[in-house]
Design brief:
heterodimer, A: mainly alpha, about 70% helix, B: little secondary structure
Chain lengths: ~210, ~10
């Protein structure tokens, strides 16, 4: 464990909690892409099946359970409890254009052709593009609530911090996982546009609004 | 690379 990985995990946890609390407290999921949240629930489900097969540490197990639990709770709030506030007209990204290619790639490029490893690879590739429906929805509505931008910032920063974690682990442990690194770079690049808007607008107290 | 069997990252 190193400082980049720990702060990355905490940033990820913060993002998940911020979103869950935002929906729960405001009793509304306006502006939130349910499709992205379904993809994240799928990412955690396929990645954390090893909860059933191997124990790494209490930290590892408890964080995985929290992530999976919050992901499904968020999907439940969006599609069940506060369904009336779900903005389906703007959440129109075709997720099959993500899941199918990612699924195919996971079969072609992986570390080991075993079910658990292919599912883990699928989850790594899927996570790198899972935010696209949410970013697409913001571009369609032309704006995002400030709390939503904080959620996205924490979510984007988490994987950027993991990039530093991988540099650290390569240098000090000789460990590297090319699949996770390449997917992590792609994932972080997809946030760059949002990072620019967040830093130049939201941090200056303005609302995040895109030229619609 | 020196990939650990178990993926120890979240």
């Amino acid at each position: 464990m190193n400082v980049f990985r720990l702060t990355g995990d905490l940033s990820h946890l913060a993002a998940i909690i911020i979103l869950l609390l935002k929906i729960w407290k405001s009793r509304s999921c306006a502006g939130i892409s349910g499709k992205s949240q379904i993809l994240f629930a799928l990412v955690f489900t396929t990645r954390y099946l090893d909860l059933l097969t191997s124990f790494i540490s209490l930290y590892n197990t408890s964080m995985k359970i929290i992530y999976v639990g919050c992901a499904y709770a968020t999907v439940y709030l969006i599609y069940a409890k506060f369904r009336a506030t779900y903005d389906g007209n703007h959440d129109t990204f075709r997720v099959e254009f993500l899941v199918v290619p990612v699924g195919g790639l996971a079969f072609l490029v992986n570390h080991d052709f075993s079910p658990l490893e292919i599912l883990w690879t699928f989850s790594i590739y899927l996570e790198s593009v899972a935010i696209l429906p949410q970013l697409f929805m913001i571009s369609k509505t032309g704006e995002a609530e400030t709390i939503t931008t904080h959620y996205l910032f924490c979510l984007g920063v988490y994987r950027a911090l993991y990039l530093f974690n991988w540099i650290w682990r390569f240098y000090f442990e000789g460990f590297f996982d090319m699949i996770a690194i390449v997917a992590g770079v792609v994932q972080t690049i997809l946030y760059c546009d949002f990072f620019y808007l967040y830093i130049t607008k939201v941090l200056k107290g303005k609302k995040l609004s895109l030229p619609a | 690379g020196t990939l650990t069997e178990d993926h120890d990252e979240l």
